[in-house]
Amino acid sequence: MERGRGTAIGGALVLLVGLWARWRVLGSVQGTLNADEAYTGLQAMAIRDGDLPVVIRGAAYTGVVDAYVLAPIHAVLGAHPVMLKVYSSLLWGVAAVIVGLAARRLGLRDAIALVCVGGIWVGSGPLVVLSTRAYLSYGSGLLAVSLAILIAIGIVSRDRSDARASALFGGVAGLAVFLHPMFLTVLVPLSAVASWRHRRNWRAWWLPAGLAAVAVNLPFLIWNARNDWPSLSQPIEASDTWGDRLTRFFTGLVPRSLGLMGEGGGWVVPGAIAALVIIAAVALALVGISGAVRQRSMVLSVVVVPVLVCWPLMAMLANLSFVADSRYAVIYLPFLVLSVAIGAEHLAARVPAPLRRMGPVVVPVALVAITVAPWLRSQAPATPDADGVARTVIDALDEASVTRLSGHYWGVLPVQYASDGRIVTAVSGTPYVVRLPESQRIVENADPGRLAHLHPASADPSLPLAADAYRVTEVGGYRLYIPVDG
Predict the structure, then answer these.
(1) Measured between alpha carbons, how far is 460 from 283 in angstroms, rounded to an integer?
(2) What is the pLDDT of residue 297?
(3) Where are the domains of the chain?
(4) CB 36 within 8 A of CB 436
């Protein structure tokens, strides 16, 4: 197989496998639009109508840049759950291409750069699911960090720093921090490598990079200064220790992000295969890291320093305790993929040429067989309508001519979004998370006789009317209470 032809076939396979996996996810229970995703769309619709926040209300550490991007799209197309998921997937696709370009800038061969693209685009079942989740600042943060890596490689590879490149790096890195401060855990060591490389160049490195980072974050800084710096507070109180979180990354987050462990903690592939995959990934990463150390390569340090340093820094953040859905793998993913790729490059010379040429085809197939298909089969059972619960609630409310709904955060926000804002919702009960204060105000002031309620079937909610004043319907684990005279 010719080199160019093999890479082209491999690229087509990576693309098609990623599209198939996302189509498979959207037709499964993992494709259901959850409340955090619905908030992304609802905030975009609120921006369209004149609400202009800087950060998520109630989560002052996360920017809402994605909602601003989506606002004009919603103004033209309206609300569509699949549209949100396509948007998030596109961000991951662009990030995958950028990581592939970074691999080439590191001097890695085309086939291994393609493997890097595949590692981001279709690395495992849970990562594919994560790529379809329209969480604010996750896909865009991955893209920004990947671009920062690419720019940093160029900066570190030059003897003399360039002010424009420095400003570009500072702006992109600053944007990633604006999106979510969790990315500081990789951007601090990444910036440290570039800063050490050009430590004596104030005019062409320190000033442009620093000023650009501050300029991008001016809205964030001004908002914090006006509101007594709420972003400096931890989002949740720590219920575990730094050591607990650090251990959980390696016993839970990494195995899950590799598609070897399910959300409940059980293995989805035989233990021997899981052990082999983990050992292979760790071994390749260590080969890459040790090779960079032996070569004393500043360029490779752009990748290996963050992948070594990020773990203890991540463990300092209390909200990173949650590892069940692999979402925090987005922080270290491009660095880990590139570290493994550097290790593969070191070992490739020992592999017979015919096998090397087959790599671009074999690797995507292996990813599907080991890290994607088993996980999807186990954790993503097919469903005829991923958003069926929200649609059923909407139909019932429309039939009763009720347009106000109060209840469980995870239940009501998808209803408001899927109805294109026609049904206005408010959060009550636990968790009490108010993201949209105007909607909350409207519903809290609504006539109780025209207000429906949606709560988990296991809950015993406090309702404003007597129990016999509601028609109660069971809907997918929830109870929908509609006023009889509504």
Answers:
(1) 52
(2) 81
(3) 3-31+80-379, 388-483
(4) no
